[in-house]
Amino acid sequence: MKKHKLLCGLLSLLGSAAAVSLSLVALYLPKMVLDCVTVQLSVQELLRKLFSVGGLWLLLTVVNLAMQNLITAYAQTRLYTRLIPAWEEKTMEMDYELFSSHQGKVQMEKARQAVSGPNWGIVTYLPRLTALFAAAGGLLAYSTVLCTLHPLAVLALLALFGLELGQGIRTERRKQSLKQEKAEAGRRLNYIAYGTRGLQEGKDIRVYNMAGWLREMARLALGQKRRLEQVTAGYDQRKLLLGSVLILVRDGCAYVYLLYSFFHRHMSVGDFALYFTAITGLGGWLSRLTDSISQLQEARNFVKDYREYMELGEKDKVREQCIMERNPQGTVQKQYAMAQKPEDGAVQERTELDGLSSVERLAKGGIGFRFRDVSYAYTEVGEDGEERKHQVFAHLNLEIAPGERLAVVGGNGAGKTTLVRLLCGLLHPQQGEILVGGTSGGVNLSLRQASFAPRDYYELFSAVFQSSGALPVSVADNIALNTTGDVDEERLWRCIRAAGLEEKIKSLPKGADTCLVKRITQQGTELSGGQLQRLLLARALYKDAPVLVLDEPTAALDPLAEQEIYEQYQQFTAGKTAVFISHRLASTRFCDRIILLEEGRVAESGTHEQLLALNGKYAEMFRVQSRYYQEDEGSLDTAHANSDWNGKEVRI
User: Fold this and answer.
1) For the chain, which terminus, N or C, has the lower number of CB atoms within 10 Å?
2) Which CATH number characterizes residue 203's domain?
3) What values do phi and psi take at 191, rounded to 5?
4) What tens digit of pLDDT does each residue of 523-575 get?
């Protein structure tokens, strides 16, 4: 970084020096020609001077163009080789809770806008810095020339320049105050532009005739963005108007004084041309300096937006790096202090793992968790900009025993998915703590104070989340998620077979090497909703982590396929701690224990039979679902008994 700053400074100084030198040669060239003509210099001497000065001017022109091209190329090369990849890496690796927060989304969009084009945002910083140095150097050089005419003339010009500069700075501050609104409007437009182009969205748009509605949403979002751009343009227009008036006053007064000096002080024609060009040039340098300061301030704001985003959550990253340095081999030692359950049922803490780096070693005996007095609330930002908290858990206490298969049920908004995210370390308790091992000597996950790297903790989990999707790579790579290409074929097909995808994958043109996501890969294929869920299940099985988390894993499967998955559930979870979320209560009987979440707490807990006997909320929900299936079957029988078609056929 230090080397980059030094190089930027050197390039800016060299580029500005070339620009100022070229301008000075252009300033003195007319004076030299007129003086030569006035003194009636010989043609040979005149041509010699012209060729000398012209050659210097040509050389400086080439150097100036070369420096400008070098500066632009360096800025754009750094953009595509460093800044955009760094933004993408940050977006993929930043803390999930921060990533999904309103602050994270807004700052992510502001940083994206800062690196959104080769002639925009951060890329303009180096050229604008060069322009500032050149303007300052040119102003100094031309002021020195005009001081020989009259020092007060320079002071008057600089005073008017100060007014113009102040207006420019105020304009940039006002434009910066609109950045937040512009970022939010940009996010809405990006979602409409890119979030509605998928195959699934295309079906919904056509079936539900959503095109007009989407156009209206786009019109409103675009209208908001245009309104902000009009406000910004208004600031620029006022700045331009004031600048034009000041230039008229500044240059007009200077020219009047110059004419007075020419007629009353016996000024030579060459000096008149020199001062006339210098006054015009000084006005140009003053305008350039004003514009350069305003434009550099704008570029600095882009740099600030980008840097603030890149520094989000950096304290956690530094802590993670320190942990990795303490454990360079990925060794999980005393900080992972996992608990095992001996035969007598007592919980015993493991104090040493003898330097073993394998997560599988940690999984021996199972991994347990304890939620102790955990509270968590989402912060939502409304259209009015006001923050509102939605309390999900308040002082939640829950223990998951090592090797236990736990089902989590509850109504919509009960906190089932939030519980899973807290368990996986994607969200962090705002109060209380989560212990791995379930003992007082367990690992504290609360408030990001864990003494181990999050990446190590993520290795403990195989998860199927509700909104996961396929990547535009091969089926094998989608399951193995291995960038090295080293895929265990036997293990791959075992997981495909266990997930019930073997027949489908073998029917594809290239088998497991067939690419997915057809709209991106020309010869790719698309999976149905149920097939995609099976693929995600195969992915979780391939990772073979000691903790299996399934959030609605069969929501898109038909009843027969769902039953097939449940019959293999014990095989999937053998030797693992498993957490299973489902709205279909019939699936919960495969678990060792069921908890029902309600109003941020565990309202009921027990086996399927125990909860039915309790005759509480779970039993009520189960009876409602059972009655629905029974009524559905009765309706189907009635439909078969009255299958005579009396309607009219309609061609579609």
Assistant:
1) C
2) 1.20.1560.10
3) -65, -45
4) 778 888 788 888 988 999 999 888 999 887 766 666 666 667 766 777 778 88
